[in-house]
Amino acid sequence: MRTQLIERKLERHLLQVEKPGRYVGGEYNSVVKDWASVDIKVALAFPDIYDLGMSNLGIMNLYHQVNMQPDMLAERVFSPWLDMEALMRKQDIPLYSLETKHPLREFDLLGISLPYEQLYTNALNLLELGDMPVLSRERDERFPLVIAGGHACFNPEPMADFIDAFVIGEGEEIIVEIARVVGELRGKSRHEQLRAIAKIQGMYVPRFYDVEYQDDGAVRSIAPNEPGIPERVLKRIVITLPKPFTKFIVPNIDTVHNRAPIEIMRGCTRGCRFCHAGMVTRPVRERPVQEIMAAIDEIVQHTGFEEISLLSLSSSDYVWVEELAEEVNRVYKDAGLSLSLPSLRIESASADLLEKIGGTRRSGFTFAPEAATEKMRDLINKYVPDDQVLQTARDVYSRGWRTIKFYFMIGHPEESLEDVQAIVDLCMKTLQEGKRILGKKATLNVGVSTFIPKPHTPFQWAPQDTFENVSRKQRLLKQQMRRGGMHLRWNNYEDSEFEGWLSRGDRRLGRVILRAWKLGCKFDAWQDQHKHREWLQAFEESGIDPNFYNFRERDLDEVFPWDHIDVGIHKKFLREDYLMSIRRETRVDCRDKCFACGILPKFAKERSTTEDMAWECPPVTPISERRRARHAEIPLSAIG
Q1: How many folded domains does the chain comprise?
Q2: Does 186 map to a domain?
Q3: Each residue of 243-284: pLDDT tens digit?
Q4: Most confidently modeled of 132-146, 243-257, 320-334, 617-631?
Q5: CA atoms within 13 A on the CB side of 117
Q6: Fewer Cβ atoms within 10 A, N terminus or C terminus of the chain?
Q7: How many CB atoms lie within 10 A of CB 442?
Q8: Cβ–Cβ < 8 Å for 391, 397
């Protein structure tokens, strides 16, 4: 009856809002099962608008994995935009799933995706719109079990007051295990349910851990408060990547990324010291070319998408990238299919690769040099000399592409204005190469972000750069990069400050997040919606100094709020790498040399304990002799 009431209200009022297609469901390839005949119901929520959530591959993977189970269903939920939220509150419409219009409270399990910290207040808003208490301890077994996963959950503590359990690591397998436990324990107390959930490798239940703090505000200890709860929660990994998801739901409206993504490789071996994803997704796993080509064929048949995005943290490091590009070019050259490789590295994007991608439609290339001086490249462990940057630019422009996009970071430890000036100089040289080849048609788009130290990286000990320093560096860039054909974009410092608080925050930030949400904060990832003044007010009313989280260098032996979350990398390894950065020492690609970061022995031990079987590293093809020869001019010892 509640579902029918929701549908009637939507029919009557939905045309009052912008883009009603966000809220109706019924898309091609969506899965609608008979609610009454399915035992376990899972709602998968992305706490931002439909336009963004429909481009999220993680949600689609989980949707597919759950719906493959005959006794389960998965349905999608997104945050309504401001106009729709106002309508829902006025008309008493609870947040509902797109597939069958059931309210959130009628599901057994609610899984919230948290890929980045700016979604935290949206998650609270989503719970309240679903007619559920936002605090975990106020929800008993009458409510769906609320779990969260995604890269932001590798430091779950800021959201510990609101989420019942966190998925630490990869979700394709664990989502089905969690749903089965919830189904088996339906009607049992929430405590019993969570005790069972905590036994699943990769699941963190905050209420089973107590946190103590020192007088200076740093964490003293994080320890289990019940018997049988592990001291550290080891992340979950999928040893063999499942068959790529191909039956993408065709959205009702244009989305942010109107293309079909295929993950060709998971993990990265480069060891960039600022990169959270590169650390927490180890080890590397690669899909064979045949599997990717079969997936592309299915996507073309089942969706009609005209662009395929080949995803990974470093697409040109995928061992068979040239063979894959050549095969796509051969099969789809005359079909108008566009191939996107969004994560190319300058040092592994060869002229041959650019030539082979050239058979498909493409407007430009994106690279991330990140830094422009030898000092900064050594510090972040990403050494790409200027000559190689310029040669790659010549290779791109000479093949007819008009646009190159560069990403740089400012605000790294030990960075000077001279290092920022070097960014300007390198960009000017690059654009000059383009104009020499293409004339006025050549363009260079430059995005400059502000460095934010992240958990589980070597820079987790480092302070974040101050507003005064970053403003000075941004002024230099703005003044000197106003040239024809060059377009500069930078991020607002308040956004970086905000992300810094939440990235390395502890459990005490829960009351700040709650207060900020009550003050009207939501859609914090949207610049026109972020209310920085209200966040500062929430800190003040909570009695917490925000500068404590951003602007102090941590002691090398400090206990971090996330130290009980085990991503498989030794803290000792990260500490050594941090000290190496201070000495400006680099590490080579770990495909060439193992540095004993910890990922392999930890999982070998865990697997043999929990599954009574030995576990070995998934096979990773070493860099081929052909690829070595391609980079012969650069000493391997200098590549980070």
Answers
A1: 1
A2: yes
A3: 999 999 999 998 888 889 999 999 999 999 999 999 999 999
A4: 132-146
A5: 24
A6: N
A7: 23
A8: no
pLDDT digits (tens, 9 = 90+) for 121-153: 999 999 999 999 999 999 999 999 999 999 999
- What is the rounded CA–CA span in Å between residue 194 and residue 206? 10
pLDDT surpasses 90 at 219: yes
Beta bridge pairs of residue 85: none
Tokens representing 44 are 């998968």
In-domain check, residue 161: yes
Radius of gyration, CA atoms only, the chain: 25
Q: Is 144 a domain residue? A: yes
> 15-49: buried (b, 16+ CB within 10 Å) or exposed (e) per residue?
eebeeeebbebebeebbebeeeeeebbbbbbbbbb
The confidence band for 602, taking pLDDT boundaries of 50, 70 and 90, is low
**Digit-coded pLDDT (tens) for 3-55:** 999 999 999 999 999 999 999 999 999 999 999 999 999 999 999 999 999 99
Whole-angstrom Cα distance, residue 167 to residue 154? 9
Sign of the CA dihedral running 163, 166, 171, 173: negative
Q: Is 339 helix (H, G, I), strand (E, B) or coil?
A: strand
Tell me the residue range of the domain where 161 lies. Answer: 2-234
The CATH number of the domain where 24 resides is what?
3.40.50.280
User: Could you identify the residue written with the tokens 């690591």?
Assistant: 169
Give which of 566, 635, 561, 639 is closest to 597, Cα–Cα: 566
Residue 223 pairs in a beta bridge with 210
Report the alpha-carbon distance of residue 199 to residue 228 in Å, rounded. Answer: 8
- Tokens at residue 330, please? 């051969």
pTM: 0.92
The crossing angle, in degrees rounded to 10, of helices 321-332 and 289-303 is 40
Distances (CA, A) of 402 to 366, 369, 395, 448, 486: 12, 19, 11, 20, 12
**How far apart (Å, rounded) are the C-alpha atoms in residues 345 and 265?**
14
Please report, as a single letter, which amino acid is at residue 605: K
The pairing of strands 145-149 and 203-204 is unpaired
Please list, in sequence order, all residues whose beta carbon lies within 8 angstroms of the beta carbon of residue 97, skipping any fewer than 6 positions away. Answer: 25, 43, 75, 76, 77, 104, 107
For residue 73, give the nearest of 44, 104, 113, 45 by alpha carbon: 44
Is 172 part of a structural domain of the chain? yes
CB 562 within 8 A of CB 233: no
Cα 110 from Cα 148, distance rounded (Å): 8
